[in-house]
Amino acid sequence: MQKKLLFIDFEFSMPDANVYRKGFYPEIIEAGIVAVEQGTIIEKYSSYVIPTAFPKLTSRCKRFLDISQQQVEEGVPLADLVHLLAKLNQSKQDKIITWGNMDMKVLRHNCEQASLHFPLQGIFVDLSMEYKQFFGDRNQTGLWKAVEEYGKEGTGKHHRALDDALTTYHIYNLVEKDKKYMEKSEPPTIGDLVDFSKLLDQMA
Questions:
Q1: What is the domain-level CATH number for residue 72?
Q2: SS3 of residue 40 by DSSP
Q3: Across-strand partners of 12?
Q4: Which residue range is the domain that position 67 belongs to?
Q5: Active-site residue among 149, 159, 183, 186?
Q6: 159 is catalytic
Q7: For 82-120, what is each residue's pLDDT tens digit?
């Protein structure tokens, strides 16, 4: 079976600032998925997801994500999203690629709360950590800041799940290209590292 790359991004519900909501936890309210095989996008998925534990979105959430109550109420149940993810990821050799680790944490917790089986079984890749390690950054970089550092632009609109998933795919390709370039580059010789003319002048 051909190894598949799944680029996943979720947007979550959030509480209002400084307002305590007993037992609150973030729920997936929008999902964006990009499935890739042999360098070709074979499927794109975008949908709002109906929250159930805390169905009414807070003002902060609607404002931050530019999302409406009606949009999420017209979305799909979490069970449908879980079913789709299981259908897309049927091999342990597939790569599940996200920017940061919150997407998988929230998905796992939402599945537990809804008594649903966690649908993913592939190799999990936090691309933000790979990016950080590859470039030696001290701090973790935001998704769209990372693509700007490449001199590129994000796809569509930030904090739209499918657009963020496509932007993650874009950065993945840029990082993989850089990795291959670094692997092909020959290690520098001592002559590349030391300016012998200056060294001899100092010794004279």
A1: 3.30.420.10
A2: strand
A3: 28
A4: 5-203
A5: 159
A6: yes
A7: 999 999 999 999 999 999 999 999 999 999 999 999 999
